[in-house]
Amino acid sequence: MSNVMNMDLIYKLFDAANMHRWNDHLRPIDLTEIDKQAHKAAIAWVLGKYEEQERGITLDWRRIIEGSLFSFMKRTVLTDLKPQLLHRMEDERFDEVNDYVLSEISSSIPDLNADFLKRFEDHIRCTEPVLEDKIVAAAHYLATNWEFNLLYDMNRHSYAIDQTKAAITLELAQYSDLIGVKNTMGSQSMTFIDLIGQLRFQQRWTRVPRIPATTVLGHSLMVAIMMYMHDLDVGVDDKQAYNDYFTGLFHDLPEVLTKDVISPVKVNVKGLTDILDEYEHELIESRMMPSIPEAWRDELRFFVYDPFTDKDDVRFGKVAGRELKMCDVMGAYIEANVSRRYGICSSKLLEGEESLRKRLMDEGDCINAESLITRFDEMRI
Fold first, then answer.
1. Average pLDDT for residues 323-328, to the nearest whole number?
2. Is the pLDDT of residue 262 over 70?
């Protein structure tokens, strides 16, 4: 049977960096679909933790992870439809819409793992959502609401802007029974969700022009998804799959406090890495940890500190740090390679691409990097 970690699927998801959201409105920053999906995935963790900690509920985190991923896959097919139209189509033509989505995914990713494809189909055809599905749906609307709040003031005179605001508020009201929704909507201070959202402002490869100009948060989602695909292929247990995915999603979280420092600067300035690590830890403890309940803080430390180190913690379990690092390198390689193939490159980008490719060929056997790169070379993008 074919692997879940499939370069055709990886590129299809990465290409969502070219999908622009709210592009019929004035926007203070470019809002892309990949960033929205990354923000949604992080918000789902927050909502899930509230349910677990305050209600004592045991969640199926694989269903939350796959629910986020499958809804992302569906969105790559139904690209630029306005939400009102999409919701109407799904209400009135539910089966036909999902038939089309399934057909498009199957044809554009012909070698997709059959079991994974079946779970995707079950997800998009589901008509009786469980708690985990509600958490993913609520995270979707919270991420949408966060975006809308960014652009509302400069679009006050736009057509139907207040109707849009009312519609988002009405959608969120459906999930008001979730503790995290209630706490987030009622907060007057900066929340963890706001901190995560700031990673949508930070572009990768600072000072290096690229198309698409991906952000730190979008990159983090790609790392998390690739790691989850790899974990499905090697058959890790539920706890490690959870750890690997959310470590991947949160591995660059400290950059909201320090900004992205490109690797050549870290390598060439003696002692800078150690200095940055020291300041990152200090800032995480003083500014980030107070934004979440104390009961979650040790787990977030487990995700954020030394994410690329193999771990087997008595309390939290395993993280495959080496494989995670190779997914991180693969994400950076795709960013550089795609920009070059689009025709936007510089000497720094070319040097970066060559260095990343060599590292993947030398060290990436743990994620089958050579096979993935070979397929990527063959693809027309």
1. 98
2. no
Predicted pLDDT of residue 283: 83
- Copy the structure tokens of residue 359: 């590292």
Q: What's the pLDDT tens digit per position in 24-67?
A: 899 999 999 999 999 999 999 999 999 999 999 999 999 999 99
Provide the terminal-to-terminal Cα distance of the chain, rounded to the nearest Å.
26
Would you list the DSSP string of 305-356?
SSTTS-EEETTTEEE-HHHHHHHHHHHHHHHHHHHHHHT---HHHHHHHHHH
Distance CA 181, CA 71 (A): 20
Residue 198 CA, distance from chain mean position: 14
pLDDT for the residue numbered 88: 83
Kindly report whether the global pTM for this prediction surpasses the value 0.70: yes
Domain definitions of the chain by residue range: 7-378
Query: Which pLDDT score, from 0 to 100, does residue 189 have?
Result: 54
Distances (CA, A) of 142 to 31, 47, 197, 244, 369: 15, 10, 11, 24, 35
Residue with tokens 């494809």: 117
Question: CB under 8 Å to 280, separation ≥6 — which residues?
Answer: 254, 257, 258
Q: Which amino acid is at 225?
A: I
CB atoms closer than 10 angstroms to residue 125 = 13
Counting every residue written for the chain, the total comes to 381
DSSP state of 160: T
Residue 251, phi then psi, degrees to nearest 5:
-65, -25
CA neighbor of 15 nearest in space, from 73, 69, 64, 100: 73
> Rounded distance, CA 309 to CA 251, Å?
11
- Quickly count: other Cβ atoms within 10 Å of residue 137's Cβ: 20
Considering the segment(s) 7-378 as one domain, its CATH architecture is Orthogonal Bundle (1.10)
Name the residue type at position 34.
I
Pairing of strands 311-313, 317-319: antiparallel
Rounded mean pLDDT, 309-338: 98
Alpha-carbon distance of 28 to 151, in angstroms, equals 7
Beta bridge partners, 319, equal 311
CA 350 to chain centre: 26
Q: How confident is the model at residue 21 (pLDDT cuts 50, 70, 90)?
A: very high
Kindly give, in sequence order, each residue whose CB lies less than 8 Å from that of residue 41, ignoring residues fewer than 6 positions away.
65, 68, 139, 221, 224, 249
pLDDT at 269 over 60: no
